[in-house]
Amino acid sequence: MISTLEILVALLGVVAAVAVAAKRSKIPPPILLVLTGLVLALIPGLPTVELAPELVLLLVLPPVIYVAAVATSWREFRFDLVPISLLAVGCVAFTTVAVAAAAHWLLGLPWAVGFVLGAIVSPPDVMAPLAIARRLQIPRRIRVILEGEGLANDAAALILYRFAVAAVGLGTFSLPPAVGLFAAIVVGEILWGIALGWVMLRVRRWVRDTRIEITLSVLTPFLAFWPPEHLGGSGVIATVAVGLYVSWNGPRLISAATRLQGLFFWDFLIDLVEGLVFLVTGLQARLLVARIADDNIAELVTAAAIVSAVVILARFVWVFPAAYLPGRLFPPIRRKDPLLPWQGPFAVAFTGVRGIVSLAAALAIPLTTADGAPFPYRDLVLFLTFSVILVTLVGQGLLLPWVIRVLGLVHMGRTEQDVDRAQEDAARRQSIQAVLDRLDALAAENAFTESVIEPLRVHHKGRLARIDRRRGDDDGQKKLATCHDEIELMLIEAERQRLRELFCKGELKDEARRRIERELDLREAHLANQRGEE
Prior knowledge:
Blueprint: H1 4-25, H2 29-41, H3 53-70, H4 74-79, H5 81-105, H6 111-121, H7 127-136, H8 140-170, H9 175-207, H10 210-230, H11 236-253, H12 256-283, H13 285-291, H14 297-329, H15 331-336, H16 343-350, H17 356-363, H18 378-406, H19 409-444, H20 450-471, H21 475-504, H22 510-533
Helix pairs in contact: 1-2, 1-12, 2-12, 2-18, 3-10, 3-11, 3-12, 3-17, 5-6, 5-8, 5-14, 6-8, 6-18, 7-8, 7-18, 9-10, 9-11, 10-11, 10-12, 14-16, 14-18, 17-18, 19-20, 20-21, 21-22
């Protein structure tokens, strides 16, 4: 019998192979991973991989949300708080109601079960569309809105989901207490997340050890998520709050060494987790096929088509009024936030891709209600959820690059990126000029001799000249900058070769070799990053 550990290693191998195939085929990795899992699930003889909902909700979701929040700009998040809130709360609630109504009137499901289904499929998963959006360089504000929505919509959906499941079990539902409880959960989780962020950053500053700091950073999302979740909340809002707090205050309190190593660690961990999650999502097809084997396939396909269409259309119906009505109804909002061209709301509406949170919530539906009866239509809800994920992730996900290009967002994004790079270069020039001014002040104060200051002055003037060459209008100067980069890479390789020779001769200790190689790695990575931005 194949052990769980062997299955995990095999899944890691599949994730790596699919990542290579995705890079060669230009297909977004999440889509290719889901399709690969779907194909593997239908091959007879392979072991069944069942996704445990508590694994996703308690172990996968917290770090994914935390890293996304840390990577989000609090300033931009706050600026777009109105559209983000309208999507994360308003669109989730509207989609839940729309799906519940369609499930009741068109499919004959009870209202309570319809609300369970609606809450499950209401929150879009932004991992796959954002990977496409970043690669195509769409305007930053659209990315910020999508990222912000992805941070908060899971919280709204999971809270609605719990209310709906409770309503099915108890047979009753009261709106006013639910609204009050929702508000209490939001406020309580925000306060808990901010308090935890304050404590963890100061503990990390007091520790001053990179490995311990990274360990504490791993614990942070779980400490933010688990207590509210066990107390009846979602845990998502607290995790978002602590992530945004760390994003805003971390640069002052986290050391440079920790940031460098932490970025690599978290990038690797999240890529691995997301890859496994998308692959395992496709692998759930085998369980679904077994559960619906005795049902009418034509009726199931019709139901899946209806629910998928309602989910997609509901987002379009909500997004355009939400994008334009606040500015038209409230002049202060219009003055602060000019109306977007229609292409922006259309792109936001089209990225309503559902993912792992929806599947985990469907799998987490209890088997029985409060009185011990089987939970009604549980297998149907699970099938419809999986169908919506496939339709939106594969269908919309594959069309998204084409839609973004047709809308002209790629050109808009690249124009915006040129402006951002000009601002970045201006900031670099000013910071280097501050260094030169400080060196001149030190020389005037006779704090150091000219022989000490002059080499530093030459070095920083060279940095300044390099920026001017790299971003100047003269093609000859740009080619010169490129030649300098190529020469520096050859010089780094010459250093590496000499280090290997010294190490082989026994004239250099291994520990010293690693320290020098780390410095060379940082220089080479810096050059590669600069070349990649051009």
